[in-house]
Design brief:
alpha/beta; 15 strands; Rossmann fold; 381 residues
Length: 381
């Protein structure tokens, strides 16, 4: 008899003939997550199991943040003997009071009882041993699960995990990580669909300092908890912004800046092997996020731009940021390059056909190439 972590997965069930590939990626990601705890991980009969970990709660915390995992349960593994199972269930339920039900699951059809019979027998034994419990099959306070697989497993607690698809099964994309509230949430939402990310951050010294840089790396580290690691590309953007500020109309400054960011991000994304860009934009939130402005920024790149927050309001975005523990870091009061040279009256309905005329005063290729060549790459674990 030993303690294990029973790991359930969700959408991977729907993958048909491709399921073995998704399960291998999921299992590998769980192995990576529990490696610091010396956890042993194996896949068997529609479940992933973790054993021999050094810290149960830390193991639960790590596994529940692996995308593709639906839920985890601290469980006890034992031989498929009814008396052994019954005694272990009695001991597990001994500290509890209130209502309960037993869920029996039998994948080993050689076991002499079916699921209903097993649940009834275990429920009877628990009731006899613990007068503080009573049965409620509809809304129980406690659910005792007994699974008969290659061995028997019992658990009374189920912790919901992040769900989604295993990281690495959805391709690669590059996240424009500003340091604000929105972009980390956008990255999280795409990571949940199995996308492996790199982050691209634009910095403008001396207008932005080391504290702003550290803040972005902290945000990347929080996202990396879900993926096992992340590359962060730090782009020197001061010269681009100065040129735009000096040579372009003030009201178009933010929009031209965004177009340069997209050009630079696309080149870096291709180096990473990414197939798309991700931004934290929400329609109409600020002047550069109107439909007309978004069309103008998208026009300078050829790869798709994903905006998972496009239909969310700020309150909804903040709720996710708090859930994934990026909110408090995002609101630290350090300037980022998006606040440098902010126009007093930015245009909200720019015309796409006017953009090349405005940018004709700039050496676009030289500025973009210089920024890409000067980019620093930091690996966040």
């Amino acid at each position: 008899m030993r303690q294990v972590l029973l790991v359930r997965y969700g959408e991977v069930f729907l993958k048909g003939a491709n399921r073995p590939h998704f399960l291998k990626v999921l299992t590998d990601n769980i192995k990576r997550a529990v490696k610091p705890l010396n956890g042993h991980v194996w896949l068997s009969d529609s479940r992933v199991y973790v054993s021999d970990f050094t810290d149960l709660q830390a193991c639960i915390d790590r596994v529940s943040k692996v995308f593709g995992v639906y839920s985890v349960s601290p469980a006890v593994e034992m031989e498929k003997d009814l008396d052994v199972i019954g005694e272990a269930c009695v001991q597990m339920m001994a500290p509890l009071s209130g209502t309960f039900k037993v869920l029996g699951k039998r994948s080993d059809k050689k076991f002499p009882m079916n699921s209903m019979e097993l649940a009834a027998e275990i429920g009877h034994r628990v009731l006899e041993a613990n007068p503080n419990l009573r049965v409620d099959v509809h809304t129980p306070e406690h659910r005792l699960t007994v699974e008969i697989r290659d061995n028997a497993y019992i658990c009374v607690r189920e912790i919901l995990a992040v769900g989604g698809m295993p990281t690495g099964t959805g391709g690669k994309a590059a996240l424009l990580l500003s340091g604000g509230i929105d972009s980390p949430v956008a990255g999280y939402q795409l990571m949940k669909r199995g996308v492996r990310l790199c982050a691209i951050h634009f910095q403008s010294p001396p207008y932005t300092g080391e504290l702003a840089r550290d803040k972005v790396l902290q945000l990347a580290k929080k996202l990396a908890w879900y993926s096992g690691g992340m590359r962060v590309y730090l782009v020197p953007f001061t010269r681009c912004q100065l040129e735009i500020h000096e040579k372009c109309p003030e009201e178009l400054g933010t929009l031209i800046t965004r177009r340069f960011m997209m050009r630079i991000a696309e080149r870096i994304a291709k180096q990473f092997g990414a197939l798309a860009l991700i931004t934290g934009e929400s329609l109409g939130q600020v002047a550069s996020q109107t439909m007309e402005a978004l069309c103008c920024t998208d026009a300078v790149v050829t790869m798709p731009v994903f905006r998972p927050l496009i239909g969310l309001d700020k309150t909804e975005i903040m709720a996710v940021a708090e859930k994934i523990d990026t909110y408090e870091t995002s609101i630290l009061p350090y300037e980022d390059c998006c606040t440098v040279f902010t126009p007093r009256h930015p245009v909200t309905k720019p015309k796409l056909e006017t953009m090349p005329k405005v940018e004709a005063k700039l050496d676009v290729e030289a500025l973009v190439s210089e920024a890409v060549e000067g980019t620093e790459m930091v690996i966040v674990e």
